[in-house]
Amino acid sequence: xxxxxxxxxxxxxxxxxxxxxxxxxxxxxxxxxxxxxxxxxxxxxxxxxxxxxxxxxxxxxxxxxxxxxxxxxxxxxxxxxxxxxxxxxxxxxxxxxxxxxxxxxxxxxxxxxxxxxxxxxxxxxxxxxxxxxxxxxxxxxxxxxxxxxxxxxxxxxxxxxxxxxxxxxxxxxxxxxxxxxxxxxxxxxxxxxxxxxxxxxxxxxxxxxxxxxxxxxxxxxxxxxxxxxxxxxxxxxxxxxxxxxxxxxxxxxxxxxxxxxxxxxxxxxxxxxxxxxxxxxxxxxxxxxxxxxxxxxxxxxxxxxxxxxxxxxxxxxxxxxxxxxxxxxxxxxxxxxxxxxxxxxxxxxxxxxxxxxxxxxxxxxxxxxxxxxxxxxxxxxxxxxxxxxxxxxxxxxxxxxxxxxxxxxxxxxxxxxxxxxxxxxxxxxxxxxxxxxxxxxxxxxxxxxxxxxxxxxxxxxx
Length: 462
Description:
single chain, mainly beta, Immunoglobulin-like, 4 helices, 26 strands, disordered C terminus
């Protein structure tokens, strides 16, 4: 601040919301949001200003380190990436009158940006900054910045508004088999809200392929959160990837002696139930599973060391340095005869965990727009309005580029359409060519292959 400029402040909605797509569309809704705000300046006397700029900037900051080693010897990963930059000039070569002056501004936020996120190792943050430059040889710049939160959900807007009753989340049929033993089919929702008290609910059907009588002793169901840290999530190679598994701290849902050839309703709560048991962080080595169904498009993840613990779940995320995915872990224990010890079947059913958003009641009329800036310009002496936007690319070019590169956040997280660096249990990607009916048919069914217990480890209390 200076002697002439007493106070500066920014006012705008702190949260920007993006909702899920409408039916059969693959983009966020809306495609972009206009954030309106005002810059308040308090001057003790008329002040000449060279320029006033409003900037919007988003970045992702990775500071990963090995949690099982001491800080000074632990392996580390540090990276920084700018996600978005834009600038608008509110005025140039103007004289600010004494008293309080409010200048309106507008910032465009595209829908393909990653949501705001903060954890121990990664931060995704967005800031709106005002830069005020006075006139004179020794004039100092005045900066003020405020964070803006970007919240994204797969919940459609008309459902969040309560306009559609009885909305059903789209479901995917996932099937697979263990040769000469058992085959399975599950109908799983593509996404679920983390705040949902009912948790994840799905239906499964198990059938015997054995020549001898087969009996299922029990089925255990819980949820696994997989976190992949890397320098560039768009890279096809897994070199340098750090994998961390979080098992939901809730006890698994257990089903004793379920019948075969019968639809069984499964459920598991995602909200953490109070648990005082302490679990230690462990390091394991992931073993590539052997697919039970051969597929030319099947991709195997190489051996990478993983850390695993129990804890709270968070939302699914795809960002430049971190990918968070969720799986329903189904363990099937069964017997063929009393002499043979058969390892259980371990299956990972992918789905997305999203945020449950309630619509904000922002009073947009109380915030000025660029028309207000022009109107104020008629009242101020030596005041000119120059609305100049300097962005790295035009909005149309950015949208096209975002669609082409599949930037994280542009398309909602869809377990049926994973990125190229997918897990072995994930399905092959759908072809970009072909009819809409064919793509819909491929999205309706997927093959979920059996995992080894070394890949989805089971934790014991310590």
